[in-house]
Amino acid sequence: MSREAPDIRFVPFDEPHLVGLGEMLLDPDVLRFTRVPEPPPEGFARTWLERYRNGRRDGTREVFAIVDRHDTFLGVAVVPEIDAIARTVELGYVIHPAARGRGVATEALRLLTEWAFGELAPRRIQLIINPENHASKRVAERNGYRYEGTLRSIHVKQDVWDDAEIWSRLPNDP
C-alpha cells in the first residue's frame, strides 16, 4: 500500500524560519547526523542563515524552508554546494522532529532534485549521508539515488572523524 505524498512546498528560508531551525538544533538526531557543531554555538542559526544568504547571492548555495499548506515549518531543503563549472550539486534535507514519519523527507528530496535538475542543470547531484542514518538512506533510494561508496574519516566534528556515504543521481537515471 503506497502512501500519498504530503502536500508540501518550498519557500526561501529567511528570518521567520529561524525559530523552527532553532528547535531542530535541539534535536539529538539532527546533531548526530549533520555537520552542525554539538552543541551549536551561540548565534549559530543566524550565522548559518547569513552563510546561505551570501551563497544565494553568489550562486554557490541555496536553502529553502519546507512548509505545508498552512505555512507550518517542517524542515529545510539545502543545497550546500553548487559548482557551476563542474556542474555538480550537493543536496540535503533535515526534517523537524514533529514532521517525521509522514513522508516529508521523501517528498522534499523529490522536489529538491526536480528543482536542481530544472534550475541548475547539473551533470551530477550528490547526497552525503552519515552511514548510521538509515532513514535518510531509504529516502535517497526512494528518489532514485544510488549508493556509490563510503568515504572514510572524511569529516571531523569535535575531534571525532566520521565516515560519510556518497549517493548520487545523474540526469539520465530513472
Describe the structure.
With about 170 residues, the chain is an alpha+beta fold. It has a domain at about 10-125: Gcn5-related N-acetyltransferase (GNAT) (Aminopeptidase). The protein is built from five helices and seven strands. The chain has helices at about 20-25, 30-35, 45-60, 105-120, 135-140; strands at about 10, 60-70, 75-85, 90-95, 125-130, 145-155, 160-170. It has a seven-stranded mixed β-sheet with strand order 1-2-3-4-5-7-6, sandwiched between helices. It is globular and about 40 Å long.
Element-level helix/strand string: EHHHEEEHEHEE
Q: Specify the CATH architecture of the domain at 8-126.
A: 3-Layer(aba) Sandwich
Q: Structural class, judged by helices and strands?
A: alpha+beta
Walk across the major sheet and give the strand order: 1-2-3-4-5-7-6
Average of the residue pLDDT scores: 93
CA(first)-CA(last) distance: 22 Å
- Uncertain segments of ≥5 residues (pLDDT<50)? none
How are the SSEs ordered, and which strands pair?
Blueprint: E1 8-12, H1 18-24, H2 28-33, H3 44-58, E2 62-68, E3 73-83, E4 88-95, H4 104-120, E5 124-129, H5 134-142, E6 146-157, E7 160-169
Parallel strand pairs: 4-5
Antiparallel strand pairs: 1-2, 2-3, 3-4, 5-7, 6-7
Observed structural traits:
174 residues, alpha+beta, Aminopeptidase, 5 helices, globular
